[in-house]
Design a protein that fits this description.
Blueprint (H helix, E strand, L loop, with lengths): L17 E3 L1 H4 L9 E4 L2 E4 L11 H7 L5 H7 L3 H7 L3 E5 L23 H24 L2
Parallel strand pairs: 1-4
Antiparallel strand pairs: 2-3, 3-4
The structure holds protoporphyrin IX containing FE (HEM).
Protoporphyrin IX containing FE (HEM) binds next to helix 2, helix 3 and helix 4.
Membrane topology: Single-pass membrane protein
InterPro entries: Cyt_B5-like_heme/steroid-bd (IPR001199), Cyt_B5-like_heme/steroid_sf (IPR036400), Cyt_B5_heme-BS (IPR018506), Cytochrome_b5 (IPR050668)
Pfam families: Cyt-b5
Amino acid sequence: MVAQDGNNTSSQHEEELKVYSLEEVAKHKTRDSCWLVIHDKVYDVSKFLDEHPGGEEVLLEQSGSNGTESFEDVGHSTDAREMMKEYLIGELTEEDKKFTKDNGPKPWAYSSSSDQNSWRWCGASVAVCVAALMVYRALTR
Ligand code: HEM
């Protein structure tokens, strides 16, 4: 018979998150150990410095502190947000949390996988044109 023990090994990553204070995070601001906080989560991006499309400088600048605002200002894509999970090492202590909300990528930063978006815009534009034409014809009759 099939044993039903498949659900106790998955999705434990979130539960295993370590808790760090901002003070602890502030000790990691070098190339060898570069941590930063985004939306109250702690990321160790030391191994990502060379790969970051925005360059290592910006990451080093934000290291040891809260990079949420800069991260959101750039409007990182869905792909970037997926990528982050790889570098997640923990979260801030309750007292250090800012409880910022992750509103997802900005409209201009959707990843290429969501080409459907352009089609949606295209469809909407056609609909607006047709509606305008109908109104025009109704008014000029
Ligand atoms: C773990 C954290 C981060 C990851 C995984 C990440 C990933 C990425 C990726 C994949 C891109 C390419 C564009 C995109 O897909 O959105 C990018 C661009 C960029 N990132 Fe980050 N990033 C992180 C943190 C930060 C932080 C804290 C800053 C602070 C300023 C930053 C600044 C930038 C800039 C300036 C660009 C270039 C945007 C452009 O040229 O259009 N990133 N990042």
